TrEMBL record:
GO molecular function, one term: ATP hydrolysis activity
Keywords of the record: Transferase
Source organism: Morchella conica CCBAS932
Descriptive protein name: Nucleotidylyl transferase
UniProt KW Transferase keyword: yes
């Protein structure tokens, strides 16, 4: 069973305002952690529209430790729509209607399959995600329809695997006909890694349910051991060619995966951010973080040591 809190359309957009919400975030996290029956918790939204209003849900699942400009760019890809800039009344109305049915979810997993909850506490991460949601909503609205605020949600889940997250989201966003998961290449590979499915004898057959309404938009990620664009496209060609059939993979799943461009070129990792904070390199931080998130990190003293600063909720 999952649980969702009411949406809030008055999402704070300044670091100072966010600090006033930290006690509320901590209380929510404690209740969420203590409830074995609750696997999903909606936190805040940039719109008052119900979750069921979304017809197409874009999901950006990450540790957000902290949210970077890479998160910002991939989040904006959900709202890129060239028809929205037209001055034609009919086309503009159609774009506005499409925007109203589209929704973005920033999702934080408290049980990550590979990462421990350090260094930044979860309440600080929720605060930074909320700031990011405001920035994404503000900019994406100018790209789609100035009269239709882009809907961006912030939520928690206890599920570590995308297969389980998708199942929970179908129960919450009941009107959605498509779930688009925005990932980097490293995450794409993990989705198809048999070692994460021990209950299925390390087979991928269970992903059939994921791909019924789920698709993956994967941003090319060069460097950090992932190879270049050619290697990443070759990986998808291998899936299409049947390389995972021996463990239950299906060739047609390759058609549910789409690569999207990394316009920035370089890898913007959270590790680089933490190193820049420790080194006091403001110029690098400006290049890696959006304005409100950067101000929040500095104001809260996050990432100055392994404890992450602050005195928040870690688990």
């Amino acid at each position: 069973m999952t649980s969702a809190s009411p949406a809030s359309a008055d999402t704070p957009s300044t670091p100072a305002a966010m600090t006033t919400l930290l006690p509320s975030f901590r209380a929510t996290l404690r209740a969420f952690t203590a409830s074995p029956a609750t696997a999903f918790q909606h936190i805040r939204s940039t719109t008052a529209a119900p979750l069921s209003a979304a017809k197409q849900l874009f999901v950006l699942d990450s540790s957000f430790n902290p949210p970077t400009k890479a998160h910002f760019r991939i989040a904006l890809s959900a709202f890129n729509d060239s028809t929205a800039t037209t001055t034609n009344t009919t086309a503009g109305s159609a774009a506005a209607a499409a925007a109203a049915e589209k929704r973005l979810l920033l999702l934080l997993a408290t049980n990550n399959a590979d990462k421990a909850p350090k260094p930044a506490p979860f309440d600080d991460r929720l605060a930074m995600m909320t700031l990011l949601s405001s920035e994404v909503s503000a900019l994406s609205s100018t790209c789609t329809s100035p009269t239709t605020p882009a809907a961006v949600d912030v939520a928690l889940t206890k599920h570590a695997r995308f297969l389980d997250k998708a199942s929970a989201l179908r129960s919450e966003y009941t009107g959605a006909h498509e779930f688009v998961f925005l990932t980097g290449f490293d995450t794409l590979v993990r989705i198809f890694d048999p070692r994460y499915y021990p209950e299925a004898e390390h087979r991928l057959d269970g992903l059939s349910a994921f791909f019924e309404r789920g698709v993956v938009w994967c941003m090319f990620r060069e460097g950090e051991g992932y190879g270049g664009r050619r290697e990443q496209e070759a990986w998808l060609d291998g899936l299409r060619g049947g390389k995972l059939e021996g463990v239950g993979g299906r060739r047609e799943w390759a058609g549910r995966v789409r690569f999207i461009e990394n316009d920035a070129g370089e890898v913007v990792s959270s590790t680089k951010v933490r190193e820049a904070v420790k080194g006091g390199n403001g110029e690098v931080l400006e290049a890696l973080l959006t304005k409100s998130v950067r101000e929040y990190v500095l104001e809260r003293g996050l990432y100055l040591d392994d404890g992450g600063g602050g005195a928040g909720f870690d688990h």
